[in-house]
Amino acid sequence: MSRLRFAAALAGGWLLTGCTVAVAQTATERCEAAIRTLNADSAGSGRAAIEKDATALIKAYGCDAGDKQVALRAASRRLTELALADSKTGASRDETLARLATARRAAQTWQTLVALADLSAAARDFAVATQTYQAALNDMAEPHGGEPPVPADRRAWAYQRANETQMLAPDQQAPPTRDRTPGGLDQVFNQPSGERGIEVHPRFLPVTFEFDSADMTQQGRTVAERWAETIRGATINGIVVVGHADPRGTDARNDELSARRAETLATFLEANGFAGRIVAVGMGRRCPVQFSTAASYTRDEQFQIMRRVEVMPGSMLPAEYCHGQVATRSH
After folding, report:
1. Cβ contacts of residue 277 below 8 Å, gap of 6+?
2. Where are the domains of the chain?
3. Which tens digits make up the pLDDT trace of 265-290?
4. What's the whole-model pTM score?
5. What are the phi and psi torsion angles at 320 (to 5°)?
6. Residue 310: strand pairing partners
7. CATH number of 202-331
């Protein structure tokens, strides 16, 4: 065999004796290797290594989607922990925001979303804050294999913070779930209490009224119209509507006004297609908001949150609501 034909034979794989031939990895093998690397680094490496590994895994294809998602969610949580730790030791807000954004690109875990929402709330960007808190609520409601359940007090805190920030950003709508059912603050109207671990909490509606009146403002009417559309598709047979006032004014006036405002919303929802039973009551100023831990609002912002109409699924006011205080019945 000539020297030229011998070289060609080697290249074509005819003669393998004494040679080591590297076999290329398949896409599945490369992806599985990327998962193993990311899992190992998420368990003990620094931020830069995890970010690099997560970016590589995001681009990889061919492996089990569930395994890939589990690894990326673990990386997102670890990157969030590192970002928050760095923020306590000198990292600027912009640096923390950028690091959390990288964590969010890996996976939109509720831990990452809550951290981002906290930054927006601290910057008084309540529109972004309430949307991000509500996205976190959606993630909390989803089953994620291998992850521990979200602590009930953590879920309740996130729900309350989403309530508060939406009252300060009334144009924002609750984001739907992945299957397009009511999500965010409205998820309690989509399934019975206890399903997916969701507890029933009062949902604040940012329906505003004219001063000293039960007539909705134009903005309040827009909010009511949007929510009426949401509630028409909910899987519940009844709701309770509770009007509240801020601490200013007399009890007699606030009781009467809050009951009339609850009645206004109840009548509006009935006229716009809700076929279930509606109970409307007023609490006046006797049931002030129990603000979420670490909340920091101005006095005017607190009053704006207090002047609320709350809605919750059911056919009667829960016995423990507002420590059992008697409401002024309207509807």
Report:
1. 237, 238, 239, 315
2. 202-331
3. 999 999 999 988 999 999 999 888 99
4. 0.86
5. -85, 0
6. 204, 242
7. 3.30.1330.60
